[in-house]
Structure formats: C-alpha cells, structure tokens
Amino acid sequence: MTNPVKIVETVLRDGHQSLCATRMRTSDMLPVLEDLDKAGFYALEAWGGATFDTCLRFLNEDPWERLRTIRSHVKNTKLQMLLRGQNILGYSNYADDVVTEFVKRSVANGIDIIRVFDAFNDTRNLRTAMKATKDAGAEAQGTLVYTISPYHKDSDYVRLAHELVDMGADSICIKDMSGLLAPYACYNLVTALKKEINIPINVHSHCTSGMGAMTILKAVEAGVDRVDTALSPFAESTSHPCTESLVYTLQGTERDTGIDVNALYPIADHFKHVKEDLIKTFNLPNTSGVNPQVLSFQIPGGMLSNLRKQLAEMGVGDKYDALLKEMPIVRKDLGYPPLVTPSSQIVGSQATMNVIFGRYKMIPKEVKDIVLGKYGRTPAPISDELKEKVLKKGQEPITCRPADLIPPQMDKMRQELADKGYPNASVEDVLSYASFPEVALEFFKKNR
Ligand code: CO
Predict the structure, then answer these.
(1) pLDDT at residue 296 above 80?
(2) Maximal CA-CA distance, the chain
(3) How many angstroms separate the CA atoms of 297 and 179, rounded?
(4) 23, 103, 194, 358: most buried by Cβ count inside 10 Å?
(5) Are 186 and 222 in contact (CB under 8 A)?
(6) Ligand 1 centroid, distance to 225 Cα (angstroms)
(7) Cα 340 to ligand 1 centre (Å)
(8) Is 238 left (phi over 0), alpha (psi -120 to 50) or beta?
(9) 295 CA to centre of ligand 1 in angstroms
C-alpha cells in the first residue's frame, strides 16, 4: 500500500518572500494558476506573511482582490495562508474581534487552510484564531515554531502538540523558518510526534544552511504527511527544497507523491522568467548559495546581512563580531524565544544597543513589553537582571493571555476610517486598515 506524501507548493507565498522580497505580482501568477491547480498539489500556500503588506505598500494591489483572483482560477486545490496568531499579519497583539473577523473574511474570500503560529509558542495566542478558523469551516493548522535551546526538547514539542490537538487543531506544522532543523533531529521529532499525535504532520523548512532537502527527506522517512516545497526558480538558498526534485526522488517508492514531474516543468519555466523580471524590475539582490553559519549563530540568514548593513550605516561596522556574540545572550535573558517575526527583530535591536551603548543601558519598548508579559509566556524564565532593569518597584508582569486586556477594536477602526473619509469601507478594507494603517490609507487614497 502506498502512502503518498502531500506537497504544499509555496511559490505563490514563501518562495518569493524568501528570494524576491515578496514582490511577485498577481499578474505574474495568473498565466499558470490553472496549471498549478491541475498539478496535484495538496495545497498552494498563497497568502499571509508579508504578501499582504507588500501588496498594499509596494505593488498597489489589494491583497483581498489577489486572494479572490487566485481562488477564481484555482478551483480544486486548497489555498493556504500563514497567520501570526493574535498578531494577525502585524507585529503586536490585536483584540479578539479583529482576529475573528480577519479569519472569517479570509475564509470567505477563498482560504481553506490557516497555519497559525506564535513566536513564543504560547498556545493561548493561537486560541482565538484557531477557533475562528474552525467556526468558518476551514482547516486550523497549529504550529510548532522550531528553535534550538535547552528548553526546546522533542518532549517539549510533543507536549505543545498535545495542547494544539486539545485546542482543536486539524493538523500540525513544524515551522523551521531559518533552516536550523537538522535531518536526523527532524527524523526524531517527526517520529516522536507520529507516535502520539493522530492528526497530519507538515514540515516547513528552509535551505538557508544547506540542509533543507535532506531534512525533508528524513521527514518523509519518518512518516510525515505533508511537506512544503517550492518550484525550482523559487527554491533553495533561503527558500524551500525544490518541488520537482522531491517529486522525482519519491517516484516509484511507497511515498510517491502521485504528481507528474513533467507537468511541472512548463510551470517552472514560467516562474523562471518571472524571477528574472522581478530581480530586474525591483533591483533585488540575487540570493543564491548556502550559509551554514546560521547553524552556529541560530540567527535567520536574512537577519545576519541586515544587521551587518545596519551597523555599517551607524559607523560601527567593527561591532559585528561582538553583536554575533551578544545575540545569544539577549535571547537567553529573554527566555529563549524562537527567532521569528517579531521576536527576531526585537532580540536583534536589543543586542545592537547593547554592543553600542553597553548591556541594557538602553532598552527598547518591545523588550520591556516582553518582560511585562505582553507578548505572552516566554519558553524559559526571563533573567533576573533584565527583570530588575525593566520592572518598577512592586510591578509584576501580567500572566493572563495578553489579548484578554485588549478591548474590542473593530468599531473603533471602522469609525476611524469613516472620520478619514471612508464611511462605507468594506469589512476587508477595515481589516487592511487595522493591519497596516498608514499603508492602507495611502492605498485607499490612490484606489478608492
Ligand atoms: Co517560511
């Protein structure tokens, strides 16, 4: 009996987010949407993450319109999106009514699967989004954000997975955003999860450190149900393993994907031209190659180059090595958060301030908020030194679910938009405004 691996194709979202600064336009997708639909993928990841922001900010596109367009051409394959839990697509927590409405409208406009994650793996931050997803009739995929620390053993992930199952997750994703998940570690983790968890497991890994394809293959050997890959032009480097190569690898085995690799080549050819055009049009750096150093520093690849650039711009380029040593210290002091948006930026800016001004001489608001519990539970306790610096005398961090303290926001957003001249804004426009206020207003000025 065969047990086909299901493929989640990411070319419409993470593929170009990883390699082309999320600049792919709807018009670049249109010519091959029907072919993608026919190829036999389990799902197309098509929305969420940075695509929403980039549509409005740089492409003068309505992200909701993009979703409806994709849906109208992709009739059979599931459409998947990525959601930052209570942060939706932004960088801080929203009220429950905004999260619920966002999820509802996403499903109504065409989404079938919502992958929900929280940077700290605080499952309380996933609860509202997961419930709304299920209420809307879509698949709620709970996420284990992968990182390496003394507080992230396989048993910790299995415990987290049980929490997600108890919350009603329909499937679980192991999300390895920086390519830290080593092949044998992946084999062991998937094996441990498959032993106790009875819903499908999906592995999402990146090739940043050069291990991606090996990691995915070991996931397959361990019995993983679904894997994320990208068609060749948008694969490898900081993106995912290549779809065609994996389909070919599994041909004739008991994990054969059932996809005809020959049908993928013309689609890949199309995206090859798209990529060349995007690099030229938006003057993007050509990201190729492998960066095994992320394994030592556990810092996302894109972030290393950003930090180096920022330091150079501030005239302290010589602090780069000190910064690389400071990052793990700050991460430890903050309770070992996985480094993913927004925690990666927060740890990065604190570490930068430390090497320039002295350790914790300056503390950004976001770091204070983490210490105050406003982002949720950190994986490990926060260091006493940092707590002493941030908490005022007698002040205690909050221990409840952070969003419990945020009153409803939808009516306020609707009113704000009306005051700015858009009294009849659609719910989708209100949600765009709630997510990225200034950017959305600029977009409305040009398009409404
Ligand atoms: Co990713």
Answers:
(1) no
(2) 67
(3) 12
(4) 103
(5) yes
(6) 18
(7) 10
(8) alpha
(9) 16
Span 116-149, pLDDT tens digits? 999 999 999 999 999 999 999 999 999 999 999 9
Cis ω before 342 (30° cut-off from 0):
yes
How remote is the CA of residue 280 from the centroid of ligand 1, in Å?
A: 24
Distance 13 CA to ligand 1 centre (A): 9
Q: Distance (Å, rounded) from C-alpha 307 to C-alpha 260? A: 42
Residue 123 CA to ligand 1 centre (angstroms): 19
> What's the gap in Å between 56 CA and the centre of ligand 1?
21
Surrounding ion ligand 1 within 5 Å at CB are 14, 177
- Structure tokens belonging to residue 237: 């480097």
Q: How many residues does the chain have?
A: 448
What is the token pair recorded at 30?
């249109």
Tens-digit pLDDT profile for residues 407-421: 999 999 999 999 999
What is the SS3 assignment for the chain? CCCCCEEEECHHHHHHHHHCCCCCCHHHHHHHHHHHHHCCCCEEEEEECCHHHHHHHHCCCCHHHHHHHHHHHCCCCEEEEEECHHHCCCCCCCCHHHHHHHHHHHHHCCCCEEEECCCCCCHHHCHHHHHHHHHCCCEEEEEEECCCCCCCCHHHHHHHHHHHHHCCCCEEEEEECCCCCCHHHHHHHHHHHHHHCCCCEEEEECCCCCCHHHHHHHHHHCCCCEEEEECHHHECCCCECEHHHHHHHHCCCCCCCCCCHHHHHHHHHHHHHHHHHHHHHCCCCCCCCCCCHHHHHCCCHHHHHHHHHHHHHCCCHHHHHHHHHHHHHHHHHCCCCCCCCCHHHHHHHHHHHHHHHCCCCCCCHHHHHHHCCCCCCCCCCCCHHHHHHHCCCCCCCCCCCHHHHCCCCHHHHHHHHHHCCCCCCCHHHHHHHHHCHHHHHHHHHHHC
Burial of residue 23 (number of CB atoms within 10 Å: 0-12, 13-18, 19+): buried
> How far does CA 432 lie from the centroid of its chain?
18
Cβ neighbourhood burial of 48 (10 Å; 0-12, 13-18, 19+): buried
Cβ–Cβ < 8 Å for 5, 224: yes
Q: What is the pLDDT of residue 90?
A: 84
**Count of other CB atoms within 10 angstroms of residue 185:** 17
Average pLDDT, the chain: 95
